[in-house]
Design brief:
Strand order of the largest sheet: 1-2
Number of domains: 1
Oligomer: single chain
Order of helices and strands: HEEHEHHEHHEEH
Organism: Mesorhizobium tamadayense
Bound molecules: zinc ion
Largest sheet: 2 strands, antiparallel
CATH architecture: Orthogonal Bundle
Protein name: Zinc finger CGNR domain-containing protein
CATH class: Mainly Alpha
Number of helices: 7
CATH topology: Jann2411-like fold
Pfam families: zf-CGNR
Number of strands: 6
């Protein structure tokens, strides 16, 4: 079954976090699954991310013409990103020991790329041509290392996704209020009703 790459699946707020979130429910070993199990989804994700992450990418489109070939490097960046930043959010600091794997994975995404990045207004290079998805993923992941970004990273208490909190007072709790916020509210309502019934029946 193909994945529908809806806006909800891009609530990470940064390409590298949206990619980390393609593994769903990392907090639940029974329910977790990987939306990139079919490598063809990497290309479809890249296509959708070109639109949802246009601001971050400076309008440069992502391309993944051979998703099967790049799958190992994409997954290695994704997993190293998740491990490093999930720990950093929980502990408030980056574990130095996570950096070698993370940097090696990012190097894998960038090696062989002949593109130029980081010019003013062109963070991911010239928007006239597309950029290889694995190279852009590495650039996005490396951008997370900035101090002011690390401080704004969060873990959704409902689905365990990583996201960046850009709210002015740093008070965003859910990856997506409309999905995880409401689900949690419904759970609380259900628990209250059940508790009330138990008291009545006692
Ligand atoms: Zn969530």
């Amino acid at each position: 079954m193909t994945v529908s790459w809806t806006p909800h699946r891009f609530t990470g707020g940064i390409l590298a976090l949206d990619t980390a979130n393609t593994v769903v429910l990392r907090n639940d070993p029974e329910k977790t699954f990987d939306r990139f199990d079919d490598p063809a989804e990497i290309a479809r994700f890249a296509e959708a991310a070109s639109g949802f992450r246009a601001a971050e990418l400076g309008g440069r489109r992502l391309e993944a013409p051979e998703p099967r070939t790049i799958a190992p490097v994409v997954l290695s960046i994704r997993e190293a990103t998740d491990r490093l930043f999930r720990h950093a959010i929980a502990k408030g600091a980056i574990a130095a020991g996570h950096l070698p794997d993370f940097l090696m994975a990012c190097a894998g995404g960038l090696s062989g790329s002949s593109t130029e990045i980081g010019a003013p207004g062109r963070p991911f290079g010239d928007p006239a041509t597309p950029i290889a998805f694995e190279a852009a993923l590495a650039v996005s992941a490396l951008s997370l290392l900035r101090d002011d970004t690390v401080a704004r990273l969060r873990i959704c208490p409902n689905c365990s996704w990583l996201f960046i909190d850009r709210s002015r007072n740093s008070s965003r709790l859910w990856c997506d209020m409309a999905v995880c916020g409401n689900r949690q509210k419904a759970n609380r309502y259900y628990r209250r009703r059940t508790a009330a019934r138990e008291i009545t029946n006692a």
